[in-house]
Design a protein that fits this description.
This protein is of the alpha/beta class and 289 residues long. It has two domains: 6-178, NAD(P)-binding Rossmann-like Domain (Rossmann fold); 185-280. Helix content is 47%, strand content 15%. It is built from eleven helices and seven strands. The relative contact order is 0.10.
């Protein structure tokens, strides 16, 4: 006997992430997706897919899993309205750790909180088709890993949450089980606060070279090639080191660009300040941890 379809209430179904999830699940026999959406653009996105919205409270009453595909700044407020309406034993799934880590979820002991986030396609992965190569985000054509965390709830719910995560982020290569605190270390701290901050600095460096007279095409070819070789060396993917001159001048550059205590961004108080900043929309104070 086959199991009945898993009923998912998808809040924010017509948004950016909601549409990705809807596209993955809407035609599958093992899921019943109840699309909850109120925004004009989101409703239009659902209409384009031949889908009709379901009233929020009706969807929540039927759901086995509630997916909060919502912006971080409003997720907590909506969760405080929605979670009291779900049945005991419902899995409430987040697509980002920020709201949970910042303490934005309402306390309710008889529901499960589960978080999952995509790793996105690796720069070291070999893709063969143009569709895979152009899928920078992942979850459409390019395969990717994911991370998952059972924040609270019975152990059996980890497997169920991971199954949903694998399906909404497919194609998935592997799933890593980590804690909520570890997920917050990865995002925002490692991936956004630091890596994206440095990536934006690289783009600004390219623009500065162009501003100072280097032809854009030359600057782009030089930057993009050097990014690839630098990643290969720094992450041990090639069997040769940076040159002595490169090592010397990179150390000088890091000393000019980075605060000496930048690793304190990983301290628990700092990570908490970062997740609270994301859900509030206000950057941490300069003197925050």
């Amino acid at each position: 006997m086959t199991n009945p379809p898993l009923t998912i209430a998808l809040l924010g179904a017509g948004g950016k992430m909601g549409c990705r999830i809807t596209d993955h699940l809407k035609d599958r026999a093992d899921y019943t997706v109840l699309c909850v959406e109120t925004g004009e653009r989101g409703l239009a996105n659902l209409h384009e897919r031949g889908l009709a919205p379901v009233p929020r409270d009706a969807a929540l009453a039927r759901a086995d899993v509630v997916i909060l595909a919502l912006p971080d700044r409003i997720l907590g407020a909506i969760a405080r309205e929605a979670v009291p309406l779900v049945r005991p034993g419902t899995i409430v799934m987040l697509l980002d750790p920020a709201a949970a880590h910042a303490g934005e979820l309402p306390a309710r002991a008889d529901v499960t909180y589960f978080a999952s986030h995509p790793c996105h396609p690796s720069v070291f992965e070999q893709f063969s088709t143009k569709e895979e190569i152009d899928d920078f985000f992942g979850g459409t054509h390019a395969r990717q890993a994911i991370v998952c965390s059972l924040i609270q709830g019975p152990e059996a719910h980890f497997a169920l949450g991971e199954r949903v995560a694998r399906d909404i982020y497919a194609p998935v290569t592997r799933s890593h089980r980590i804690t909520l605190e570890q997920m917050a270390l990865l995002e925002p701290t490692m991936a956004e606060t630091i890596a994206i901050g440095l990536t934006i600095t690289m783009r600004e460096a390219l623009e500065e070279a162009v501003h100072r007279g280097v032809p854009r095409a030359a600057a782009e070819d030089f930057m993009f090639g050097h990014i690839k070789v630098a990643l290969g060396i720094a992450f041990g993917r090639v069997n040769f080191p940076f040159s002595d001159g490169c090592t010397l001048i990179a150390r000088y550059g890091r000393g000019r660009m980075l605060q000496a205590d930048w690793r304190t961004l990983f301290d628990p108080a700092s990570v908490r300040a970062q997740t609270k900043a994301i859900v509030s929309g206000r950057a941490p104070d300069a003197d925050s941890p």
